[in-house]
Write a structure and sequence with these properties.
Elements (H helix, E strand, L loop, with lengths): L1 H11 L14 E12 L2 E3 L3 E12 L2 E14 L2 E15 L4 E3 L2 E16 L11 E14 L4 E10 L9 E12 L142 H10 L1 E3 L9 H16 L5 E5 L7 H21 L7 E5 L12 H4 L4 E6 L2
Parallel strand pairs: 12-13
Antiparallel strand pairs: 1-3, 1-10, 2-4, 3-4, 4-5, 5-7, 6-7, 7-8, 8-9, 9-10, 11-14, 12-14
Helix pairs in contact: 2-3
Amino acid sequence: MKNHAISLVFLIFLAGSVYSQNEENPWLFEFGINSVNAENSDKTSYRLPTLSLSRYIFNNFSVGINYSENDVNVSNEDLYYYSLDGIVKYNFPNESKFLGVDTNTYLYAGYGLSNFGESDISLASKNTSYGPSFGAGIDFQISKNIALNTGISYKALDEKNAYSNLQHVVGIKFNFGKGDSDGDGITDKKDQCPDLPGLSELSGCPDSDGDGISDLDDQCPNKPGLNSMGGCPDTDGDGFSDLNDPCPNNAGTNGEPCPDSDGDGLNDNIDNCPNEAGLESNGGCKLADVDNDGIPNINDNCPNEAGEETFNGCPKMPLSLSIFLNRYSDFFFDFDSFELNQDQISNISDLSKILNRYNYIKVNIDGHASSEGESEYNMQLSLSRSNSIKNTLIKNGINDSRLKTRAYGESNPSYPNFPLSERKKNRRVKISVEN
């Protein structure tokens, strides 16, 4: 008995959850050892076997049969003992724990035969007696279909050669039937999620988020969602589930899951500047435009000076050229001369630097003469004066196509012919920007 007690305690500590006898697992078989304390008995011993088979019927009730064998000593006489009873058992629905182990208790009542003294089972033997029995027990579950059991019963017998007795049983039970691994009341055969407790309306599968879609079919099992979205929510209501929406909190536009706030053709989720229209090649951002003339630096020949698109971002009249022309637009010559002095050559050099920087600018070089001499001669002299400046600009690297020379002779004076101090100002070349 001591060894059986040690084994029982050890197995209790290995116990798991209870899988009680029910509609899904209706059959229960027990195999164990028993001891019988009969009236006037001198000693007891534990012996094999005790056998029991029962079947669940309804509302925690089950019916079955119990069979036991043992040896008893009554009034110093050794007797062979066996019993066979039909029983009705009630399992208490509320499970409890003992030392951290799930347990299930039960009561039963029965009626059957007992025999003291003969080894052969016989319903008509003179040593066979009939009477009621009552008992109780507790199961300690060690796996979902196996439990340890200990119980006690009393059998009342008042016939000759019979002894009322108290019986102790220790055994192991096997619960079997259709199978309900997760204990949700749905047989494994019908349960699409046999290892997870679920709902009958969802074929035994759970619905963790309560949206009416089983976790088995729910792409977002922990977030309530829509059946049309595979069980996922659509927080922004744009027709794309949050699972497939890179912008779940901002409704998309134009059939896209994300909006295009700046209307530049790039959705906000891939637009580095979502609130400012820009180029796709620049990540949806504007290209740098230091001078704010609307022409990005990459296409602006004058990135630091506001200009016009016609002139590739440069101004029509650059400030430096405007300043130059305000000071040196007129080049004055000596009487009957088209030679340039050193100051004029230096000024033309400065003009060349400006024209080299702004290579889109074309200039007019208009030659004039005073009224002395023949008009035809003065016309030729004015052309020679224009060519003097043109040739100097060409030497400084300015393309001929950008230079337009014109000769007016004495026909277009800017100053009066008298006095001489005014007339000599007509011996000039005027520089202007071609429109």
